[in-house]
Amino acid sequence: MKALLFGLVAIAALNPVLARSQAVLTQPRLAQSGQERLSCPSDLETLVQWLLRDLPSYTNRVIARARLSSDLYLLVAGNPEYVPFEPSALQYSPTKSDTAPPQQVYFTSLERQYLTERAEIRQSFHRLFLVKTETGWRLVALFSRLSGGEMAVPAPPQETSRGPIAEGIQLWLRDCRAGSLRSPDSSLSP
Question: What's the rounded mean pLDDT across residues 53-71?
Answer without folding.
Answer: 85
